[in-house]
Amino acid sequence: MNGSTYHHSRDNPLSHNLRLTQFSEVTEADRRQILRIMESPPKVVGVPEFGPVVLVVEDNEILKQGIQLLLEADGFSVLSAGNGLEALEQIRGTCPDLILSDISMPEMDGYAFFDAVRANPEWVAIPFIFLTARGNRDDVFEGKKLGVEDYLVKPINRQELIASVRSRLARSQELLLAQLQQAYQASLIMLSNAIELRDQYTRGHVERVMDFALTMANEMGWNSMQKSALQFGSILHDIGKIYIRESILRKPGRLDEEEWAEMKQHTVIGAELIKNIPYLASALPIIRNHHERWDGKGYPDGLAGENIPLAARIVAVADSLDAITSSRVYRQACSLEQAYNEILRGRGTRYDPSVIDVFQAAWPEIAHYLQK
Ligand SMILES: [Fe+2]
Q1: From 1.10.540.10, 2.60.40.2470, 1.10.3210.10, 3.40.50.2300, which CATH number describes the 199-371 domain?
Q2: Is pTM beyond 0.85 here?
Q3: I need a labelling partner for 107 at 20 to 30 A (CA). Which of 158, 187, 262, 276 fits?
């Protein structure tokens, strides 16, 4: 995708190289870098003043000009070429957002041109639509073998042309956004795990909490928006620990009163860190309230019962389960049965009884995951 029409609002978060290493104190530079990653959620935006750029490749001059006029009337910028070779020259100069190409052309036909475009990694994602002669089934079949998704059958009418180009651009934008979301989530998981490793959790804590929580959410029939908030909340639940001293996080014995007060602050600090990032705002209740208890004896707000956000009640169970089943510095991991029973003992005191019902229903799947 070229920079003229759609672009990621900032650089890819995966390109950041997080310096944070296991068991090290977090420096101010680390913190700034972590915040920078969090504040770079994926966004794909249009640049309206130019309009998407469409490259029209057609050897019939009249048809080419006709298509060009129709597209320009609808706000597109149009580049044109009379065959595949000319089109490749055009792409080298300005990378289009979409290609509309005839099949039968002199010098280089549509199939050879399509192959050349897809062979270049920079052009591999450009949406491609073939123009095919009416009723030519062989054309369609050949195109399908090449992996082309769209055809426009000549003679082309305006409505069909614009609808097809717009829907193909929209699909490609959705795909790009999904890829960026994945990269962003991977970055958040990486940095959150780096932070959890300063604590006494074992590698992969964040993914496990997320998987346990999602398994329970599936059991409850949550929709994709609810699950997305749960995912980000699970990933970032302890993000506030970047401001907690290592000597407290890794202290083998009991924390004294002052240390405990500092430790508890990770929930409030984490919520503060993300409150101005709209993309992550739905994760805020989880980050702030994942240490609340059903009986009201938790922190930081001392919320009780259903006043605790449901997603935070789920993550509380998921987080505890991973703490119990993972090896700690000062305690060996316990058996699956012991872990299951320990969670159940918290029913109605630490944990929401209805979440424990869900946990019990989801247990075969969770246990299967833990045995892997
Ligand atoms: Fe926590």
Answers
A1: 1.10.3210.10
A2: no
A3: 158
